[in-house]
Amino acid sequence: MAPGRLGFHEGIFLLLLAVAGAGCSRPAEDVVLITIDTLRADHVSSYGYSRATTPELDRFFASGTVFENAISSAPCTLPAVKQLLRGSFEAHAESQTLAERLHQRGFVTGAVVSQHQFYKQPDAYRRGFDRFDIQSLDEVDQHGMTARTAREVSNRAIAWLDEIPSNRPFFLWLHYFDPHDPYEPPAKYRGFDAGSVSARSGDRRTDLEQEKRSTTERARDAGYIFTPKDVQHLINLYDGEILYTDSEIGRVFAALDARGITSHALVVLTSDHGERLGRGGHWDHCASLGDEELRVPLFVRVNGGPLTGRRRETGQASTLDVVSTVLALLGTPQEAAPAVARDLRKLPPTVVPPWPSGTGAGRRAMRTGSSSQDREAPGQSSTRWRAIRSRSGTWRVAATRRNRT
Ligand SMILES: [Zn+2]
User: Fold this and answer.
1) Among 35, 164, 176, 356, which has the minimal tally of Cβ within 10 Å of its Cβ?
2) Per residue in 50-107, pLDDT tens?
């Protein structure tokens, strides 16, 4: 534990007690945002998954709040993360980020990122960070994908915790990439795949997709290349990547605990989008508004406890709500907060809206943000219907029972 840090926070705590009176909740001092790329909510144990994929997340957030019904604002990394960092669909590169807002408040800001695509528009992601530790291009693997492992992200994050000045609060953003394909967890984390009879290596970019490319014309949308055994094999490996990432994030949680940070920090963990995982022969993401791609885990723990009076919230939350919530907790409501962003402490219960019903005005909307998929849908959706608005403003209602948009 860094004595200076504790002294600072104790001082803040006493000051707040004097102002607010003993027994009142105090704002968190430090802010930790963890995003795990490509993590589907229904593959997280806390969300009912039958496998123990996330023991560290489950343990750490058992004292926090689980948002059972959370969606990302987009099914694709770049718009989803840009919007998450700003709490707004209007995620222009020049719009203010959470890091900038916190930096203005005197926070030390740092990010450790495993995601090669952020190089394409670095200012959209790095703005406001004193240190933005993104992998170098030589950390991209032979598939052109990110190769900075969860272990490396955690190592760098833990080292950064020891460099923070003792007299300033901090904001730390960590982005892990391992559950993104190709699914190749370290050998220790391949237990879910024990006994698999599949001959596939698990690297579908070199095997399965190469095979698919060769028959693309005939196989498009047919999905027959992926046998049930292939699908299960790859899901096994995907789950192994989640378990591996969970284990490494557990080291960060332990580091926060050991430094006395957890008790006065706001810790948020979520994902940028899900993954189709072979349904109908489809993999990847960035392709639909189905729950496989949009539903993400969302955990919040503040000052060592839950964010709200309940451990589990069922109202529909969005990754867009994170910035609003952080700023509200710090006593700085977001100026001109976008109508779609909410304080997660004040979520209304989930309401299944009747479809179709007009233009969708007043509902929470989502937009993928990419030019090829620029469409909107109310965040509140039933299990059967989802409204989608094209760029021209025309609304249509899509059935989601078959997870098609
Ligand atoms: Zn992603």
Assistant:
1) 356
2) 999 999 999 999 999 999 989 898 888 888 999 899 988 766 656 789 999 999 999 9
Q: Where in the chain is the domain with CATH 3.40.720.10?
A: 26-350
Containing 276, the helix (H) or strand (E) segment is: none
Amino acid occupying residue 10: E
Q: Which residues contact 8 (CB under 8 A, 6 or more apart)?
A: 166, 167, 168
From ligand 1's centre to the CA of 403, what distance in Å? 20
Asked whether the beta carbons of 320 and 80 are under 8 A apart, the reply is no
Each residue's pLDDT tens digit, 228-263: 877 888 899 999 999 999 999 999 999 999 999 999
What is the distance in A from the centroid of ligand 1 to the CA of 239?
Answer: 16
The class that CATH gives domain 26-350 is alpha beta
Q: How far is the CA of 400 from the centre of ligand 1 (A)?
A: 22
Pairing of strands 395-399, 385-389: antiparallel
